[in-house]
Amino acid sequence: MTAPHLRDRYLQDSVNTASPGKLLIMLYDRLVLDLGQAEQALAAQEREVAHEKITHAQEIVIELRTSLDVDAWSGAPALANIYGWMLTELIGANIARDAARVKAIRELAEPLRDTWREAAAAAVAG
Question: From the record, what ranges are coiled-coil (predicted)?
Fold first, then answer.
């Protein structure tokens, strides 16, 4: 097997064996990465790369929204609304090629990711 195939298999195995909390953090990590790369691509006028990264970020937000159980806890409906806002902003940012909108989403996603990371660590420890 070649190195890229081994890496892909490792990544797939990591996803397949991850706990729900770890999967959530992996999604957020990738969301933040995509948003940062989209910002950079927009600044460099690399429209195709920016579109690819923003579109992937949209897919992640859709996954986060659809996997959210709004009846599980009282804050879930508000989080669903945040995901809806993110998706709307990502679509608008992609159309307008607006790095500032992408940055605003990233700046919101980062503390959400960090909060979920802390919650997952507390669940494992507790």
Answer: 28-55
